From TrEMBL:
Family: Belongs to the raftlin family.
Name the UniProt record assigns to this protein: Raftlin family member 2
The UniProt record lists the keyword Cell membrane: yes
Alphabetic keyword roster: Cell membrane, Lipoprotein, Membrane, Myristate, Palmitate
Pfam families the record matches: Raftlin
Main location: membrane
Gene encoding the protein: LOC109867883
Keyword Membrane on entry: yes
Segments of this protein annotated with the region Disordered: 159-199, 368-407
Topology in membrane: Lipid-anchor
Compositionally biased intervals (Polar residues): 368-377
Length: 443
């Protein structure tokens, strides 16, 4: 008998998802002073459909989302729905993106909106070097901090190919770069320079779209002023079929706990999914999380991490994390980051399914400090407890689609209808809880 890392799940495992939390379920469902409202919107760079809005470039998101910003919603994260990493050709829907917007539920009290209506700013940054590396990401974080000192707040980023095409996080195999002359990309504000001043080598293809919130002078909320951004380790064990990642496992709570205890927020992530040609295929993958530190010293955060399958039926997203997100919003849980993965399968009906990792946080309540389970580890699989129903039954609990007249704004459809019973699929003990030693499980 001893303690060791859990065995990596079978790549063919079709469990609908797992939930990890620093709290037990009754504590997760404690009401707080803040209730959030979410809007989930899908955008495509390759054409519009009834449930998807077309944009020729993600630089257009600021204008596309403006009707929601006037209602008090702000972008919390943007992510590609499908990653074609390690595959010889891009998969369908590789240019499909999900934008998640949130707002605190308006109170009856009338409050001036000046301080709460930011402007979404999009900048296009070239990637130095031949591929995305630790050094590249550190340079990007340094530049984010430089921008933050000017009074803006970092929202997140998306990796793209030059010319507006989406790479969806796919980093091409390294090839010889070229020295890019100083220039200002189309959606970068005038005066923005390159990442370095000494003419580094740039990839001819890769660009990082970086999203910020900015405010009119004197209108920024206190917590948005003088934010700093820090990197944190991100490591996963993976199983592959050839070059393609088919399963992954990470100690999410262990990786993030120290940062959440400081009151920091997880806002972005970078993973080096691709293996350069000629190099051995690794059994683990590395990357970096990006955390936001506020100047107002907020309390520590509890967290929920969800590994969830998203199912695409036809050309529409039918099953995803939306129902759970709307349920948790009632208890003050804020989504801050979604990590898409290249794990892609087909369900029993032939629908495309992909796994995503969703991160939510909420300030710690003194009455919600969990007690250690003396009987052993609290980490358990949730294979029989669906969050919003999984790969095996995509039609059982589809994501509700609302028409523009039933909640949409400016002609956009709204995804992820709120199902109050979303947590009911997780019976007592369904959460995989941090017991102080999330890195190991007693076996």
């Amino acid at each position: 008998m001893g303690c060791g890392l859990r065995k990596l799940e079978d790549p063919e495992d079709s469990s609908p998802g797992k939930i990890y939390s620093t709290l037990k379920r009754p504590q997760v469902e404690i009401k707080t002073d803040t209730v959030y409202e979410y809007v989930l919107l899908d955008f495509s760079l390759e054409g519009s459909r009834p449930t998807v809005q077309y944009v020729s470039s993600l630089c257009e998101l600021s204008q596309a989302l403006q009707p929601y910003y006037t209602q008090g919603y702000v972008l919390t994260t943007l992510h590609p729905i499908i990653l074609s990493v390690g595959r010889t050709r891009s998969l369908p829907f590789s240019l499909l993106y999900r934008a998640i917007l949130a707002r605190p539920r308006p109170s009856k009290q009338v409050v001036s909106m000046c301080h709460s209506v930011p402007v979404l700013r999009v900048e296009e940054w070239p990637i130095p070097g031949e591929s995305l590396t630790d050094d590249t990401v550190r340079a990007l974080i340094d530049r984010v901090n430089s921008s933050a000192r000017g009074g803006v707040r970092f929202v997140g980023s998306v990796l793209q190919q030059a010319g507006g095409g989406g790479s969806n996080g796919r980093v091409p195999s390294p090839r010889r770069g070229y020295r890019s002359p100083p220039h200002t990309p189309p959606c970068t504000p005038p005066g923005e320079g390159e990442l370095e001043d000494h003419s580094p080598t740039y990839s001819p293809d890769l660009r990082l779209l970086v999203f910020f919130h900015s405010w009119a002078p004197g209108c920024a909320p206190l917590e948005a002023l003088a934010c700093q951004y820090h990197q944190g380790a991100l490591s996963m064990r993976v199983s592959r079929k050839g070059q393609v990642v088919s399963a992954l496992e990470a100690d999410w709570l262990e990786l993030t706990a120290a940062y959440y205890r400081k009151g920091w927020s997880l806002v972005d992530s970078f993973v080096y999914w691709d293996t350069p040609k000629g190099e051995p295929v690794p059994r683990s993958l590395e990357g970096l999380f990006v955390y936001e530190e506020r100047s107002t010293a907020p309390p520590a955060n509890d967290t929920i991490v969800v590994e969830q399958w998203t199912v695409i039926e036809g050309s529409d997203v039918k099953t995803d994390y939306g129902p759970l997100l709307h349920t948790l919003a009632e208890f003050g849980w804020l989504l801050t980051c979604v990590l898409p993965t290249p794990i892609i399968r087909h369900d029993s009906d032939g629908n495309l399914a992909t796994k995503q990792v969703v991160f939510l946080q909420r300030p710690v309540k003194t009455s919600s400090v969990p007690q250690r389970n003396q009987a052993g580890s609290m980490q358990r699989d949730v294979a029989t407890h669906s969050v919003s129903r999984g790969v095996g039954s995509p039609r059982t609990h589809p994501t509700e689609e609302l028409s523009p007249t039933a909640g949409g704004i400016g002609g956009f459809p709204v995804f992820g209808g709120g199902y109050p019973s979303a947590l009911s699929h997780l019976e007592e003990g369904g959460f995989e809880q941090d017991d102080g030693a999330a890195e190991v499980t007693c076996m």
